[in-house]
Amino acid sequence: MINTVIYFFSWIFQTLFRIFPFPCKTGLFKINNPDSSSPVILTGNYLLTTQRVKLALKKRDAYLLVANTHGINIWCGAAGGHFNQHAVISVLKTSGIDKLVDHRTLLLPQLAAAGVESKIIKEKTGWKPVWGPVYAKDIPAFIDNKLIKNDKMRIVTFPLLQRIEMAIFWAVPISLFLSIFIFFFFPHLLLVANLLIWGLAFFLLSAFPLFDNLSTKNNDNSKKPLFSFFQGGIQIILFSIITAGFYIYHLAAGTTLWPLFVEQAVLAFIIVLLMTIDLTGLTPLTFSGFLDKGYSIRVDKTRCKGDGICIDVCPKNCFDRTKDTPGIRLACPDACVSCGACIIQCPRDAISFFTRNGDEIIPDTIRKYKLTMMGKRKQVEK
Fold first, then answer.
1. Strand 223-225 vs strand 128-131: parallel, antiparallel, or unpaired?
2. What mean pLDDT is predicted for residues 184-213?
3. CA-CA distance, 261 to 102, in Å (whole number)?
4. Rounded to an integer, what distance in angstroms lies between the CA atom of residue 376 and that of residue 317?
């Protein structure tokens, strides 16, 4: 078992360099003293995720299966094709877990639903996948509640601690790479550059819920950002404030170093662009600006029979049940981040993406093509 001190230092290091994969050992691990009736929980081999699961289970008897996700976290690994049903099937068959328990219920992380096809796992192994909660800390309560999730367990949030983590993750690589260039060519700007990078990172991520809530309505009643990061609204405001601050500083100090002011203004422009270019992509609440959403999600009422798995796997609580029929309705389309989990898991192919031209992107296409880091879809091995 991992203790909190080791976890704390591991969390700091992995947060600082989160841009890189952090793989850990795969296979079967016993948590305390499990027996034949103990729960079997599966996660990926991103080190920080595995540590969090172990900490959540420190007072439980359980079996933990760690599948190979190439050291990438659950959601990114599933969406990008690094975490799929093959990884799950492989660890189930090679770990010998079937000889240790008298049940065949496998708890999978909910955010893996964007890439792991539960239907294939059941067909090929006989294990029944059950989608657990979004966050590891809720696993004990989920087990105690007889494997039933409430809304709190299903929905992805972005609390202050996670925003601080992402601020550090965003600032570290930009600070390191930009500092190397500045050190050799503009060493007098090194301190200013790092203050801007870290200050903007913490400000933008801390205040992100405010940006997310600043919206207007389109003609079709959907939400439209009031200030778009990709249309330059936020960048212009930030650049104006920073350059005004530089000007006031020089004015108050009585300096007439206009070349320095120009250099600082150019530096501010570059850093503002770097820090905001894909800020939305760093958050679980909004759609990355690199992705051309260009499509909407729809439920085919003639196919839907109300199985409800879409409700179970949706991290943004976009679906609910209709009152008069056994079907499911799309209650909050604006909240959708297009992870595709509902499409991949729906047993009746009742949910699809549609392009702006009204063309359907069939579910098998979403299952076959996964997202790259730049928002493009690539074919993955089936």
1. unpaired
2. 89
3. 72
4. 25
Q: Which residue is it, tokens 């609440």?
A: 285
109-163 pLDDT per residue, tens: 999 999 999 999 999 999 999 999 999 999 999 999 999 998 899 999 889 988 9
Task: State the residue range of the domain holding 319.
Answer: 295-379
Question: Which among 152, 159, 68, 145 has a CA at the least distance from the CA of 110?
Answer: 152
Residue 381 to residues 44, 121, 128, 170, 183: CA-CA distances in angstroms? 19, 16, 23, 31, 45
Give the per-residue SS3 of 249-279: HHHHHCCCCHHHHHHHHHHHHHHHHHHHCCC
Are 251 and 319 part of one and the same domain? no
Residue 286 lies in a domain: no
Examine residue 290 and state whether it is found in any structural domain, yes or no: no
pTM for this model (two decimals): 0.84
Q: Do the domain assignments include residue 20?
A: yes
| Confidence class for position 321, pLDDT limits 50, 70, 90 | confident
For the stretch 39-91, pLDDT in tens is: 999 999 999 999 999 999 999 999 999 999 999 999 888 988 889 999 999 99
Residues 147 and 22 placed together within one structural domain of the fold: yes
Co-location of 121 and 187 in the same domain: no
> Residues 38, 110: one domain?
yes
Q: What is the DSSP string of 178-245?
A: HHHHHHHH-GGGHHHHHHHHHHHHHHHHHTHHHHHH-EEE-TTS-EEESS-TTTTHHHHHHHHHHHHH
Q: Which amino acid is at 27?
A: G
Q: Which of 116, 132, 154 is the last residue of a domain?
A: 154
Residue 226 has, within 13 A of its CA and on its CB side, a CA count of 8
Q: How far is CA 373 from CA 77, 80, 338, in A?
A: 11, 8, 15
Rounded Cα distance, 87 and 76, in Å: 15
Residue corresponding to tokens 């609204």: 233
